[in-house]
Here is the input.
Amino acid sequence: MLSNISISPQKWRLLNLSLMAFLSCYLVISSDAKAYAMHIMEGFLPVEWAIFWFIVALPFFVLGLRNITRITHEKPELKLLLALAGAFTFVLSALKLPSVTGSCSHPTGTGLGAILFGPLTMSVLGTLVLIFQALLLAHGGLTTLGANAFSMAIVGPIVAFWIYRLVIPTGKQRLAIFFASAFANLVTYIVTSIQLALAFPAATGGFIASFLKFAGIFALTQVPLAISEGLLTVLVWNWLTSYGRQELEMLNLIKVEARL
Here is the structure.
């Protein structure tokens, strides 16, 4: 009897997208959540710097909300792909490697969403991911949310978006996706190093010495992580071209195929 059941291609794509998003969230929430600091941990930044980064990040978040509202109203079919981009960021950014006091190294997962929907959309998705991680996994913190959002959800996606735009004219789309994702990861940690150096300048050498120390320690784990994230994002892109092709066509990211 099961052989007589037929599923339309559109329902099959939705089923695959839903399954991937569900499994992604399940794997993270059910994983061992040890109390390593994710991003910059709760209470680590001085109050003045915590407030400063909240103020800097807020305009991007507001613009991102407007952008998501426009996308969901104009193309409601993209809501599931939007959720998938958020789930991908949630999963990757929760895979942590302890690196330096007050923070850690991890993938970011923001490159894919920036390519699909633009950096403003990721400013919202990335911030929501950071909030859930702080509340559910004790990774990062609410007082440091502005700083973490600025580095991972704002600057990283902006870099990913423009690197993709710069490389895509060569016609090598997967190479563009790889570089966009890898550099989004690296830039996130350069910004984090800057934030920590501004808050904790070295007694000798000041900001520069502190930045070089933080960035140097991060580089030991972050460079291979960035390369790995770029490769993984390309694999996810290949999956999307098979099971979410219509959505990618709607976003003008791949050519529209003639259908009978």
Summary: Strands lie at 97-100, 103-105.
